[in-house]
Design goal:
- By secondary structure, this protein is mostly helical.
- The chain folds into two domains: 1-70, Alpha Horseshoe (Serine Threonine Protein Phosphatase 5, Tetratricopeptide repeat), CATH 1.25.40; 75-112, no CATH class.
- Helices cover 68% and strands 0% of the residues.
- It is built from eight helices and no strands.
- It has helices at residues 2-11, 15-18, 25-28, 32-44, 48-60, 72-84, 88-96, 102-111.
- Helix 7 (88-96) runs antiparallel to helix 8 (102-111).
- The longest helix is centred in the middle third of the chain and has 13 residues, at 32-44.
- The chain is globular and about 40 Å long.
Length: 112
């Protein structure tokens, strides 16, 4: 329910309000889904270092309930962040880890 609420806040553009979700981390620190959600919340709030931390953390955890939160979705978002920062080689590295995820494949075509 916490994750659904977090996505609802993001989808409605209430990025600052979504920061409230971080107070539940102590209960969900083991969850790739929750870490991925925090990565999105931080990214949407311009907290890039925290976003990188939590997307990376998601890749270190077991499978989530949402396919890809601990793999290609997290890697894709890391690629986007690094591309926006102008770190193109690092972005390519993360897009390549997405194993054929269409959005990553498209980004690789554009930045190559």
């Amino acid at each position: 329910m916490i994750e659904t609420y977090g996505y609802a806040l993001i989808n409605s553009g209430k990025y600052k309000d979504a920061l409230e979700i971080q107070k539940y981390e102590k209960y969900y620190s083991f969850s790739a889904d929750f870490s991925f959600l925090l990565g999105l919340i931080y990214m949407n709030n311009g907290l890039i270092d925290l976003s990188i931390k939590y997307f990376s953390k998601a890749t270190q955890l077991g499978d989530g309930n949402i396919e890809g939160t601990n793999s290609y979705l997290a890697f894709y978002n890391l690629g986007v962040i690094y591309e926006c920062l102008g770190l193109i080689e690092k972005a390519k590295e993360y897009y390549q880890k997405c194993n054929g995820y269409d959005l990553a494949v498209n980004r690789l075509k554009i930045i190559n």
